[in-house]
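Dear support,

We are seeing what looks like truncated structure output for some complexes. This example has two components. We would appreciate it if you could run it in full and send us the complete token output so we can diff it against ours.
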Amino acid sequence: DARVTQTPRDKVTEMGQEVTMRCQPILGHNTVFWYRQTMMQGLELLAYFRNRAPLDDSGMPKDRFSAEMPDATLATLKIQPSEPRDSAVYFCASGWDREETQYFGPGTRLLVL
Amino acid sequence: AQTVTQSQPEMSVQEAETVTLSCTYDTSESNYYLFWYKQPPSRQMILVIRQEAYKQQNATENRFSVNFQKAAKSFSLKISDSQLGDTAMYFCAFCYFGNEKLTFGTGTRLTIIP
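Here is the complete output from our reference environment:
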């Protein structure tokens, strides 16, 4: 049963700390997406990759957020320094670019105090 | 830019009944995809159903079916024989053909009443 995995599932941290979220896409998928979900803004696309290359990160605050794919099995989203307004659920999704369907991981719930 | 509108913030229905969730979208393109995702309290986003705009036949997946009206830019989800496990937020989403970026609606919170 192929699934997108994300770690950690929950994270509580203090303002100013670095946060790293990890995602393992479904084997064989070549697109990876990072979304943020909040009550106020709903689901927002932060960044996405195709074949490990970043295609669009216009939704991401550049000064504190960074997204990378060190290899085809790992995507990371880092926040440094974290702020209380970053509190949200962060989802990773993966897909195959010829199918245009995204499969989501379980999300990381981040709380910045 | 495309927009996706879900005009029903909340709905509730008795178990075993049929319920229809509405979704409208706005685009000037003719080739695109539409999706319904389900988000239960566990927060996992689960793909329910997908529709290619070039297909006239409405997609179905077991108890879930859509009514896709391309001219009206409407994409409603029908859940038949509703079950308690269908209780969730339901999101309608859109992406252009060849561009995987999804645009989501604001969601409809569906509660199935025992």
